[in-house]
Automatic annotation (TrEMBL), chain A:
SUPFAM superfamilies, per database record: 4'-phosphopantetheinyl transferase (SSF56214)
Keyword Hydrolase: no
Source organism, top-level taxon: Bacteria
Region (Disordered): 1-30
Any one GO biological process: lysine biosynthetic process via aminoadipic acid
Alphabetical UniProt keywords: Transferase
Gene Ontology molecular function: holo-[acyl-carrier-protein] synthase activity; magnesium ion binding
All residue ranges annotated as the 4'-phosphopantetheinyl transferase domain in the record: 147-251
Matches recorded under InterPro entries: 4-PPantetheinyl_Trfase_dom (IPR008278), 4-PPantetheinyl_Trfase_dom_sf (IPR037143), P-Pant_transferase_sf (IPR050559)
Record-given protein name: 4'-phosphopantetheinyl transferase domain-containing protein
UniProtKB/TrEMBL annotation, chain B:
Region (Disordered): 1-25
PANTHER family xref list: ACYL-COA DEHYDROGENASE, ISOVALERYL-COA DEHYDROGENASE, MITOCHONDRIAL-RELATED
UniProt-listed InterPro entries: Acyl-CoA_Oxase/DH_mid-dom_sf, AcylCo_DH-like_C, AcylCoA_DH/ox_N_sf, AcylCoA_DH/oxidase_NM_dom_sf
Upper taxonomic lineage: Bacteria, Bacillati, Actinomycetota, Actinomycetes, Kitasatosporales
SUPFAM superfamilies linked to this entry: Acyl-CoA dehydrogenase C-terminal domain-like, Acyl-CoA dehydrogenase NM domain-like
Protein name: Acyl-CoA dehydrogenase
GO molecular function, a single term: flavin adenine dinucleotide binding
Biased composition (Low complexity): 12-25
Amino acid sequence: MSGRRRGPGAAVGPPLRLHGPPLRPHGPAGPWRRVRRALRERGTVLVYGLLDDWVPREPYSAGLRRLLGGDWGRYEAMAVAAVRNRFAASRRLIKHVAGYALQAPPEDVELAYRPGGRPYLRGCDHLDISLSHTGDLLLLGVTRRGGIGVDAEPADRRTLLSGAERRLWTPYEIEALAGVGEADRPRQLVRLWTLKEAYSKAIGQGMRFRFNDFGFPLDGVPPRVLTPHGRAGTGDEWSFGSARVENRYVVSWALHDTGGRGAGAAAAAARLDWGLVEALTSCDVRRSQPGMIGS
Amino acid sequence: MLIPTGQPVPAPRAAAGDGGADAAEGAVRERVAEVERLLGDPADDANPFGRRALLDADARGRPLPGADVLATGWGLGAEVVPVSLGGRLERTDRLVRVLRALFRRSASLGVGHGVGPLLATLPVWAAGTVRQRRWASDLLLGGGTLAVAPYELAYGDCFTRGECTAVPGRDGIPRDGTLRDGIPRDGIPRGGILLDGRRPAVVGAARADGLVVFARTRPGEGARSHSVLLVEAASLPGGRLVRRPARRLLGLRACEVGEVEFRTCRLPAGTLLGQVGDGAELALRSHRFACATVPGMVLGGGDTALRTAVWHAGRQAPGGAAGALSPRQRAVLARVFVNLLVCDCLSRVAGRALHLLPESSGVAAAVTGYVVPRLLRESVHDLSAVLGARFHCDEGPYGVFRVFLRDLPLTGVGHVGGAACQSALVPQLPELARRSWLRDGTPPWELFAAGGALPPLDVGRPVLRAAGDPLAATLVGIGRSLGADGGRRGGPRTELRLLRELVGGLTGELRRLRAELCEVPADDTAAPANPRVQALADRYALVAAGAACLGVWYHHRDAAGSFLAEPAWLVEALLGLGHRLGLPLPGREAPTAERVVREILDRYHSARSYDLYGDRLYADRL
């Protein structure tokens, strides 16, 4: 019950902000101090890893098998080594970060998948997670504020505003981007794309939500979802952000505050109310005067 | 009432079906229709409960003007008062479906005028003296209101935060501000109670005539740290009870929520509900009842969300025909409707278990409180793929949709519910796995029926660890019967074969869960905090949801002309749950999703609810 009397709860407070830029543990050994602090103080953390740090040294070890748990069969069936390595690396990253958040060994964290494939922490979904990977980057968002979506793209990714790709943008975005110089446009496009993917993942839709049905403003104003014609589409409960990592990737996040704890312990034990657990498991349940309802 | 294991599963009595109705079911339908009629045409801009009025109130962050008529004019307060005290609370099915009608309009309306008063009264009915119960029932029947400052949860939202301390004793305020030892163990203290503290968000605080307050009476953690008080607002001298508007919430903006502060309030000893230290136990009793009933009420918002998506898809389709939906739209709509049915099956079983199997009702209630909010939230989000750009529109039906989506986490079954349900579920599973699963006989069929006679409710019954698990027993029992009767009854051969395969998969999962839970040492008090055990509880909850659906279908399968009697929806439901469990699944060899879509369109055109009952709604289709 250590989390009592803390945090604004479901009241509207200042916009949610991450605890500084995305953090990079260099493997299971960490460092984890800032990750723990971000979770404790903000309830949200954005972590990234590079494949080399997280690809298992021994691809078929008993330890990896224990760590992957129910995902082991899927891992073994992957024919392409690069795909298999990325899969193992991303699961190691998720389970180590989640393990630190839950104060449990990483192999005790079970990953499950919603229809549509979005991973979640089975039985511990007070912590929402979102994963993205591109190139040699793995990006993971973890929050107990509500929901989170993240996306990463190479900063030099070429996205067009014309032809078939025109349908990826709203009329508002097309008009706004038309006013941006050619030199700056690719940067704006990558940023917008990652914001769209992050939001779409945060609401559990991935690419199923058409990208010309919602948009974001260009860099320079606080990001928020806009309708195709530029009206506000989300309220105070959403916050968004973007950053550049390793100087070659653009990452964005979408955070949905549903009133979860902002500060305090995220551990699996902290989620349970021990007063209730004790009341339930106690043998000393005294009967009070029953209140019969009904005839 | 359990049928011994090994005995054949008896055929249920002729089911009322979703089309037929017995007297009890007829009475529920009548009251739902009456509330629908009173709430009026949602499309009418002049209707005080119409969409325009609700969206305006939400935008202004003010309670819906004139909503007090629900309590003062329509007698809605009586819905949460036991019949023995002059009210109408007798059956959970009526309570859930009447208040579901409020949620179909707005979560603010449902929470402010349904869930709020219900949660406030439960500790009074459970532990109040004759005088306290009479006072509360007279208040509600007379159009007054009660509000609750609930048990503070370790992982709660704004409604369960803040802390009040109550110091029972003969005299004064503790000088150092700490609680005293020496609380009388033998009942109500003679010298009255001193109440101090602040709760930042209490539903209905401003207009409440009485407040039910969970207050700390002992420092530290533990089952006896809190007590419950029933405070008459008018009895407090001026300045002792301070009420002010709460900070703006993330949702429920058309619901009156206020901050309550008690400033050294000296209360008479008769304020105590039950005994000193009963707080956690009374919270568990209220929680069990709330988990079994509130999620089913909130489903009303999911009904309107789905209806909005069907309406939108029809507008977008060529010629405006709702039948001309794209394959993607059909798949999403079918999945969402099936999810609503899964939720309602759990709600039905949990509510009826309070009547029929009170000693085993805790597990079904906790599963309902755990599964339904998640499934509902995901389902409403899924509709974004149908609504497209209109998902973010804040006008008309789209605006109502959006407000519901925003409000959903605050409806009392979201963040808090999940945590509290885990607290109620996880500690019980290892014991149930050892003693009950694959051993108990099937529960009475009334658990899965609509209407019919039900034993009286007993809110005051202490919550004990569940004696048995009716849902696990249902899965095993019906699974055996499905294999035995060769699939001759209950639908086309292909669907029934799929069904047997899916039920076999769920039963296998239950066996695996049992093996894993049996490895958890019986005396391991830390086990509930282990994420591995919490993951097992999550898997169990999905299996139990499948069992609830199976029981409802099995009960209805001989009801001619009933959608629920067909296996299509059940096949779709079990495919969805199986996917979540990561089970190997059979292919969709039968057009089961198409059958579900047909039902969605039928109900849309005939203005019937998207739940197990198909209640008739206000004549306007949206």
